[in-house]
Design a protein that fits this description.
With 356 residues, the chain is of the alpha+beta class. The protein contains 10 helices and 16 strands. The chain folds into 2 domains: 155 residues, Probable inorganic polyphosphate/atp-NAD kinase, domain 1 (Rossmann fold); 147 residues, Tumour Suppressor Smad4, CATH 2.60.200.40.
Amino acid sequence: MSKVAVQPDASCEAERSCVAAAPSSVESRARPRARIALLSNPKSTGNIAQLPRIREFCAEQPDIFHYEVEDASQIGEAMKSIARVRPTVLAINGGDGTVQAALTALTNGRHFGDRPPPVAVLPSGRTNLIALDLGARGDPIDTLARLLTMVRADDLAAHTVARELIALRLKGAEDRPVIGMFLGGAGLADTMLYCRNKIYPLGLPNGVAHCITAFALIMKLVLRIKGSFLPPDARPLSVSMQERGNRISGRFSLLAVTTLEKLLLSSQLGGRRSGVLKLLAVEERPMPVLRGLFASLAGKLGREKVRGVHFEEADEITIEGDDSSVILDGETYRTELGSPINLRPAQALSFVRVAA
């Protein structure tokens, strides 16, 4: 099985162009079906140290077709080449932003027709909510090796689960939705950006950076300490659930919309309906934050009413605000007056749980 690794040099770029330009019928006759197509983003922070080992592992595995992109904007083109080798599984090696770009290209591009392959996510990058939800933890090479064992044993069906996705639409680009699994807004988005822009550049390990961010958030929300060195105050937002006519407005320390099974510290996010968006909003006051934290620890989010904590299930959600950030799987978008963000369920895809 030949493999394509796109590197920042002319010879590899030429090879990529040649493969991408070849007619699909020729590719189908020339290439046997790949067991695993691995899409890697070398620019993902977690890949800087791991990618040489992953390249070496893939070079020794004839069942893996490895395709590297230099930038997320190339992922759509990568999908065209990957579709030609007809993989049994599409594995993604990158953070949540890379996964989001791949899911968007997979859904909107329809390069695999009506039957896209199941998706596996390696635990790479700084943020790995999607990988964690699917049971991928630890060394990405160990995860890739487990995936290879599953495929060779024809045991993939036992580990495949369906996941509903979120389609985010912006005004003027309704026909080109962005596809993801987890959206954070209000204070949650501000805190994530604070960690990304002020704490990560310090070069600390991820765990330490996250602890510092959590401590700074506690100082701000619970102790009511003010300062430019802390996360900023959340801006007002209005959130509407169209089919039920529900609307909540105000300042929220946490706003999340997800299709994931797990959220924050809760072992399982509650809810009565499957295949819909789950909205969680916590008012920006100390007591609702503490109540929400305890409910999360007790696994009661979405199962019991908690004062100051809003949980809704909806088929369509609209978020409006004046220059407030929302983050969908690592990528930032901004709400503007007159230009709301619309969220709807997208077509479900199959994912592979690769827990040890």
